[in-house]
Amino acid sequence: MDNDELELQIREIIMHALKRRVGYDGFVKAIVKALYPNLSIYVEPELVRKLRILIELIDNTEKPKTPYDVPIEEAKQIITNWKGSRYLVDNLGLPEIYEILRYSMQLGRNINLARIIVFINPWGNTAAFKLAFDEGSMREIARNYVTDFIRGQDELVHEVFSKFMNIEDLISSMNNKLKTNIIHLIKHDLEIKDNDLLIMADHGYDIECGDIMCRLCHGNSCAKPIFSLITPLVIVR
Protein backbone atom coordinates (compact mmCIF):
# COMPACT_ATOMS: atom_id res chain seq x y z
CA MET A 1 0.00 0.00 0.00
CA ASP A 2 1.50 3.36 -0.97
CA ASN A 3 0.78 6.89 0.18
CA ASP A 4 -1.32 7.64 -2.91
CA GLU A 5 -4.23 5.88 -1.19
CA LEU A 6 -3.82 8.14 1.84
CA GLU A 7 -3.74 11.20 -0.39
CA LEU A 8 -6.88 10.14 -2.25
CA GLN A 9 -8.77 9.35 0.97
CA ILE A 10 -7.84 12.67 2.59
CA ARG A 11 -8.98 14.45 -0.54
CA GLU A 12 -12.27 12.53 -0.52
CA ILE A 13 -12.81 13.45 3.14
CA ILE A 14 -12.14 17.14 2.58
CA MET A 15 -14.23 17.41 -0.59
CA HIS A 16 -17.15 15.63 1.10
CA ALA A 17 -16.94 17.92 4.14
CA LEU A 18 -16.81 21.02 1.93
CA LYS A 19 -19.81 19.81 -0.08
CA ARG A 20 -21.74 19.24 3.15
CA ARG A 21 -20.69 22.70 4.44
CA VAL A 22 -19.08 21.22 7.54
CA GLY A 23 -17.45 23.86 9.75
CA TYR A 24 -14.17 23.54 11.60
CA ASP A 25 -15.89 22.45 14.81
CA GLY A 26 -17.89 19.79 12.96
CA PHE A 27 -14.77 18.48 11.28
CA VAL A 28 -12.98 18.08 14.63
CA LYS A 29 -16.04 16.36 16.11
CA ALA A 30 -16.09 13.94 13.17
CA ILE A 31 -12.46 12.99 13.86
CA VAL A 32 -13.25 12.41 17.54
CA LYS A 33 -16.29 10.29 16.64
CA ALA A 34 -14.24 8.26 14.16
CA LEU A 35 -11.64 7.57 16.83
CA TYR A 36 -14.11 7.02 19.67
CA PRO A 37 -17.41 5.67 18.28
CA ASN A 38 -18.94 5.29 21.75
CA LEU A 39 -18.77 8.99 22.56
CA SER A 40 -22.21 10.59 22.35
CA ILE A 41 -21.43 13.16 19.68
CA TYR A 42 -23.68 13.61 16.68
CA VAL A 43 -21.87 14.44 13.45
CA GLU A 44 -22.38 13.80 9.75
CA PRO A 45 -22.20 9.95 9.61
CA GLU A 46 -20.73 9.65 6.11
CA LEU A 47 -17.84 11.94 7.07
CA VAL A 48 -17.16 9.74 10.10
CA ARG A 49 -17.20 6.63 7.89
CA LYS A 50 -14.66 8.15 5.51
CA LEU A 51 -12.42 9.16 8.43
CA ARG A 52 -12.54 5.60 9.80
CA ILE A 53 -11.36 4.35 6.41
CA LEU A 54 -8.45 6.82 6.62
CA ILE A 55 -7.56 5.58 10.12
CA GLU A 56 -7.51 2.01 8.82
CA LEU A 57 -5.35 3.04 5.87
CA ILE A 58 -2.84 4.75 8.17
CA ASP A 59 -2.76 1.68 10.41
CA ASN A 60 -2.13 -0.62 7.45
CA THR A 61 0.37 1.56 5.59
CA GLU A 62 3.93 0.30 5.76
CA LYS A 63 5.84 2.87 7.80
CA PRO A 64 9.44 3.89 7.09
CA LYS A 65 11.69 1.94 9.45
CA THR A 66 13.74 5.06 10.21
CA PRO A 67 13.46 8.78 9.35
CA TYR A 68 16.20 8.24 6.76
CA ASP A 69 13.82 5.94 4.88
CA VAL A 70 11.22 8.69 4.35
CA PRO A 71 11.14 9.41 0.57
CA ILE A 72 11.66 13.09 1.14
CA GLU A 73 13.41 13.85 -2.18
CA GLU A 74 10.08 14.40 -3.93
CA ALA A 75 9.17 17.05 -1.37
CA LYS A 76 12.58 18.71 -1.68
CA GLN A 77 12.20 18.93 -5.46
CA ILE A 78 8.68 20.38 -5.26
CA ILE A 79 9.73 23.00 -2.70
CA THR A 80 12.87 23.96 -4.64
CA ASN A 81 10.92 24.47 -7.88
CA TRP A 82 7.96 26.25 -6.28
CA LYS A 83 7.29 29.76 -7.64
CA GLY A 84 4.63 30.93 -5.19
CA SER A 85 4.55 31.45 -1.42
CA ARG A 86 6.14 28.78 0.79
CA TYR A 87 5.47 27.90 4.41
CA LEU A 88 7.00 25.38 6.79
CA VAL A 89 4.73 24.66 9.75
CA ASP A 90 5.70 22.92 12.97
CA ASN A 91 2.63 20.73 13.59
CA LEU A 92 -0.25 21.07 11.12
CA GLY A 93 -3.29 18.98 11.96
CA LEU A 94 -5.90 17.62 9.58
CA PRO A 95 -8.54 20.10 10.92
CA GLU A 96 -6.27 23.05 10.04
CA ILE A 97 -5.56 21.62 6.58
CA TYR A 98 -9.32 21.42 6.08
CA GLU A 99 -9.78 24.99 7.29
CA ILE A 100 -7.08 26.29 4.93
CA LEU A 101 -8.89 24.73 1.98
CA ARG A 102 -12.31 25.81 3.26
CA TYR A 103 -11.12 29.41 3.57
CA SER A 104 -9.46 29.20 0.15
CA MET A 105 -12.78 28.12 -1.36
CA GLN A 106 -14.53 31.04 0.34
CA LEU A 107 -12.01 33.33 -1.36
CA GLY A 108 -13.03 31.89 -4.74
CA ARG A 109 -10.06 29.59 -5.29
CA ASN A 110 -10.65 26.39 -7.27
CA ILE A 111 -10.26 23.67 -4.63
CA ASN A 112 -10.25 21.01 -7.37
CA LEU A 113 -6.72 22.22 -8.16
CA ALA A 114 -5.54 21.75 -4.56
CA ARG A 115 -3.46 18.75 -3.60
CA ILE A 116 -2.30 17.21 -0.33
CA ILE A 117 0.79 15.07 -0.84
CA VAL A 118 1.29 12.69 2.08
CA PHE A 119 4.47 11.35 3.64
CA ILE A 120 4.63 9.23 6.77
CA ASN A 121 6.72 10.50 9.67
CA PRO A 122 7.62 7.24 11.48
CA TRP A 123 7.98 8.95 14.88
CA GLY A 124 5.29 11.61 14.46
CA ASN A 125 7.63 14.33 15.72
CA THR A 126 10.03 17.07 14.63
CA ALA A 127 13.18 15.03 15.33
CA ALA A 128 12.31 12.50 12.62
CA PHE A 129 11.50 15.26 10.13
CA LYS A 130 14.87 16.95 10.73
CA LEU A 131 16.69 13.64 10.24
CA ALA A 132 14.78 13.00 7.00
CA PHE A 133 15.91 16.40 5.71
CA ASP A 134 19.39 15.91 7.22
CA GLU A 135 19.19 19.31 8.90
CA GLY A 136 19.83 20.38 12.50
CA SER A 137 16.70 22.47 13.02
CA MET A 138 13.40 23.51 11.50
CA ARG A 139 14.76 27.02 11.04
CA GLU A 140 17.63 25.65 8.97
CA ILE A 141 15.19 23.77 6.75
CA ALA A 142 13.07 26.93 6.38
CA ARG A 143 16.14 29.02 5.54
CA ASN A 144 17.61 26.52 3.07
CA TYR A 145 14.31 26.16 1.22
CA VAL A 146 13.35 29.85 1.48
CA THR A 147 10.11 29.29 3.38
CA ASP A 148 8.34 31.25 6.09
CA PHE A 149 8.54 29.25 9.34
CA ILE A 150 5.45 28.94 11.55
CA ARG A 151 6.13 27.38 14.95
CA GLY A 152 3.20 28.67 17.00
CA GLN A 153 0.94 25.71 16.22
CA ASP A 154 3.19 23.22 17.98
CA GLU A 155 3.65 25.55 20.93
CA LEU A 156 -0.13 25.73 21.32
CA VAL A 157 -0.48 21.95 21.16
CA HIS A 158 2.09 21.51 23.92
CA GLU A 159 1.31 24.49 26.13
CA VAL A 160 -2.48 24.74 25.85
CA PHE A 161 -3.84 21.42 24.61
CA SER A 162 -1.64 18.77 26.24
CA LYS A 163 -3.86 18.63 29.35
CA PHE A 164 -7.22 16.87 29.29
CA MET A 165 -10.29 19.10 29.09
CA ASN A 166 -13.97 18.76 28.33
CA ILE A 167 -14.48 17.89 24.67
CA GLU A 168 -16.60 20.98 23.98
CA ASP A 169 -14.03 23.24 25.64
CA LEU A 170 -11.25 21.58 23.66
CA ILE A 171 -12.98 22.11 20.32
CA SER A 172 -13.90 25.70 21.17
CA SER A 173 -10.32 26.44 22.17
CA MET A 174 -8.93 24.75 19.03
CA ASN A 175 -11.24 26.97 16.97
CA ASN A 176 -10.12 30.12 18.76
CA LYS A 177 -6.41 29.31 18.75
CA LEU A 178 -5.19 26.69 16.26
CA LYS A 179 -7.60 27.58 13.47
CA THR A 180 -7.44 31.34 13.98
CA ASN A 181 -3.65 31.38 14.24
CA ILE A 182 -2.89 29.48 11.03
CA ILE A 183 -5.41 31.43 8.95
CA HIS A 184 -4.13 34.74 10.35
CA LEU A 185 -0.54 33.88 9.38
CA ILE A 186 -1.23 32.81 5.78
CA LYS A 187 -4.30 34.94 5.07
CA HIS A 188 -2.45 37.68 3.17
CA ASP A 189 -0.86 35.25 0.70
CA LEU A 190 -4.16 33.39 0.25
CA GLU A 191 -5.93 36.64 -0.63
CA ILE A 192 -3.42 37.58 -3.35
CA LYS A 193 -5.00 36.60 -6.64
CA ASP A 194 -3.02 34.13 -8.78
CA ASN A 195 -0.58 33.47 -5.92
CA ASP A 196 0.02 29.75 -5.39
CA LEU A 197 0.79 28.47 -1.89
CA LEU A 198 2.84 25.52 -0.72
CA ILE A 199 2.51 24.57 2.95
CA MET A 200 4.60 21.76 4.39
CA ALA A 201 4.56 20.47 7.97
CA ASP A 202 6.77 18.09 9.91
CA HIS A 203 3.86 16.17 11.46
CA GLY A 204 0.28 16.52 12.67
CA TYR A 205 -1.41 15.81 15.98
CA ASP A 206 -3.83 13.31 17.46
CA ILE A 207 -6.87 13.73 19.69
CA GLU A 208 -6.90 11.42 22.72
CA CYS A 209 -10.02 11.02 24.83
CA GLY A 210 -10.94 9.35 28.08
CA ASP A 211 -14.68 9.47 28.73
CA ILE A 212 -15.60 13.09 27.86
CA MET A 213 -12.15 14.52 28.55
CA CYS A 214 -9.79 14.96 25.61
CA ARG A 215 -6.39 16.40 24.76
CA LEU A 216 -4.01 16.82 21.82
CA CYS A 217 -0.72 14.98 21.44
CA HIS A 218 1.73 13.79 18.81
CA GLY A 219 4.32 11.08 18.40
CA ASN A 220 5.39 9.14 21.47
CA SER A 221 3.35 11.39 23.75
CA CYS A 222 0.26 9.60 22.37
CA ALA A 223 -0.86 6.13 23.41
CA LYS A 224 -1.22 5.35 19.69
CA PRO A 225 -0.14 7.99 17.17
CA ILE A 226 -2.30 8.01 14.05
CA PHE A 227 -2.90 11.40 12.45
CA SER A 228 0.32 12.82 13.90
CA LEU A 229 2.25 10.46 11.59
CA ILE A 230 1.05 12.43 8.58
CA THR A 231 3.60 14.79 7.07
CA PRO A 232 1.53 16.87 4.64
CA LEU A 233 2.59 18.94 1.67
CA VAL A 234 -0.42 21.13 0.90
CA ILE A 235 -0.63 22.81 -2.50
CA VAL A 236 -3.21 25.57 -2.97
CA ARG A 237 -3.58 27.11 -6.45
Give the secondary structure arrangement, pairings included.
Elements: H1 3-19, H2 24-35, H3 45-60, H4 73-81, E1 85-89, H5 94-106, E2 115-120, H6 126-133, H7 138-144, E3 148-150, H8 152-159, E4 165-166, H9 167-191, E5 197-201, E6 206-210, E7 213-217, E8 230-236
The average pLDDT is 96
Please tally the helical runs, counting DSSP H or I stretches of 4 or more residues: 9
> CA-to-CA gap between the ends?
28 Å
Which stretches are low in confidence, meaning pLDDT under 50 for 5 or more residues running? none
Strand order of the largest sheet: 2-8-5-1-3
In short:
With 237 residues, this protein is α/β, with parallel strands linked by helices. The chain is 49% helix and 16% strand. α1 (3-19) packs antiparallel against α3 and α2 (24-35) crosses α3 (45-60).
Task: Offer a few descriptive terms.
237 residues, alpha/beta, 5-stranded mixed beta sheet, 3-stranded antiparallel beta sheet
Please tell me about this protein's structure.
The protein is of the alpha/beta class. It has one domain. Helices cover 49% and strands 16% of the residues. It is built from nine helices and eight strands. It has helices at 3-19, 24-35, 45-60, 73-81, 94-106, 126-133, 138-144, 152-159, 167-191; strands at 85-89, 115-120, 148-150, 165-166, 197-201, 206-210, 213-217, 230-236. Strands 2-8-5-1-3 form a five-stranded mixed sheet, with helices on both faces. The chain has a three-stranded antiparallel sheet with strand order 4-7-6. β6 and β7 form a beta hairpin. α2 packs across α9 (167-191) and α8 (152-159) packs antiparallel against α9 (167-191). The longest helix is centred in the C-terminal third of the chain and has 25 residues, at 167-191. It is globular. The model has no long low-confidence stretch (mean pLDDT 96).
